Structure formats: structure tokens, C-alpha cells
Amino acid sequence: MDRPRPRPLPDFMARPPTIFKRSANLLLQHIAGNVAVGDPLPTEQSMAELGEGSRTAIRSVLAHFHERGLISDLKDRRLLRKPVREDYFELDELRTGADRIREVLMERIYHSDMPPGAEFSETELARAAGTSTISVREFLIGFSHSGLIEKKPRGGWRLCAFDRSFAMELADIRQMFEFSAIDRFASLAPTDPAFMELQQLIARHERLGSVMPTHHKDFPSLDRDFHAFLIGRLGNRFAEDFYDLVSLVFHYHYQWDKAEEMVRNEFAVHEHLDILRALARRDVASAREAMRIHLNSARSTLLQSIRVREMKAHPG
After folding, report:
1. What residues are paired with 152 via a beta bridge?
2. Residue pair 225/200 in contact by the 8 Å Cβ criterion
3. Same fold, 11-89 and 164-313
């Protein structure tokens, strides 16, 4: 009698999609703080709510947990060991299509020093991000409300400049969101999954800080994740959309004085660590003071870059 052929691994085992990874991380965070070794996991319905996914997606996650030796089997689902850091998917693996479009656009502005007036196409951006031109167009139309990019004929777009008053207004709103995020984080229970993400961010900052200044160009991506992590605590869609604009203006802006870039990035890594470590200690006063210092530094360097540009445009 022929032996049955082994079933092929599910698609997620070869290339797990973003939704799968996010659900897996959310369930791991719940398990770490709420399930003892030897106890069964919650019901599928409860896990679907905890993992913010469908019951079908949760079954795929459970199969993944079984493969990693976290649970006994797919029926009893008893926990065999507590999750470790290697069980989690890295934060930078959880990017959606819009995240990839945003990242490609920002990286091109940052690394290519694209000046105000530079043009780019939807087709080129879609190819680089691995998405459709429709997705790119939807993202750019939404982002164009900021006034920092504008539509051109035949799928083209152009970068626009901004002035001191725009920068000051943006900085004021940013400060309100950042301090509110710190206060919200301080109210979380010690077992909240956000503390696992916090430790991952601390580790990433420490790794980058150990190889500075030679790897300072790796900072903008980490910078975006740092602020997105904090703002995500607010659960406010308007705040999250606002940070697309902040990311471009403060972290990837094409008017920066590049001569100061290396020193600025090196300082910012340590400013971030001061904030993150204070949050890990639940020291709200120190976290707010560290954030105040960080935001003042960002505001000062942004305004200085605008002064330099204006002096070059109108010498004498």
C-alpha cells in the first residue's frame, strides 16, 4: 500500500504575509503574560480577537506555533514553553503595501537628496515597492493633502518646498501628540504587549548605537519606527496619518544640511534611548523631559536647515 504523500507546507511557512506575522506577535505577547506552561491556550474565537485576525488565520498561526515547539498539538494546544525573542517576527517585517511605498519614497528622497522641484513617476515607485500603480496612486493622492507633493500629468509627481511657518506649526502639533503618547504609555498595565515591543526597540537602538557613526544612514528607518510605536499607543487614525507628514519633514527632509547629518543622527539615537529606557522604568517625568529635549533638537535643526536654504536662495 502506498504511503500517503506528506501535505505541503502552508503558504505562510514559505513567505508569511504581514497579517499572519502581526497576529502571531499579538498572540505571543498575550501568551507571554497570561498563559502558564502546561495550560491550554484560549479558544479560537478568543485568539481571533486577541490576534486581530480571522479564525482561519489563527489556525495557521497555531500550526506555526506547533512547528516551533510552543504548543503540544493542534487539539489540546497546551503551552510547552514560554515564548522567547526569536519566536517573534521583527517589527520591520510587518510592513503593509502602503508601508513599502512610503519607505521607498522616503528612502529615495533621503539618499538621493532629491531637491524641491524634483519629479518622480508612479510606475517607478510601484516597481521599487513591489506594489501596483493603483496602490501607489492612492497613497500619493492621500499624502498630497500635506502640500509637500503635487500631481503632474501622466502619472508624474513633484516634490514641493515649505517655509518656516509650516515647520513651526508642524512642530507644535507633533509635540502635543508625542507627549500624549508618553502619558498613554504610562497608563498601560505592566503585562501589556507594548512592553515587549518596547524592549525590541531598545535592543535595535543599542545595536545601531554600537556601530555609529559608520552606520548613521540606517537611522531614519529606525527613527520612523520609534515615533510610529509611540503614536500607535494613541489609537488615533488622525495622529497616525499625521506621522507620514512628520516622517518626510523631520526625518527624510530633502532640505537638511547634509554636513551635520552624521552628528545629528548619532545624537538622536541616544535621545531615543533616554526616552525608551525611562518608559521601561515607568519613569514618566524622565520620559517627558527626554522627549522635550529630543523635540527641541529636531525643531532647531529643521529651522537651521531652512535658514541655510533661504540664505543660499537669497545671498546677501
Report:
1. 156
2. no
3. no
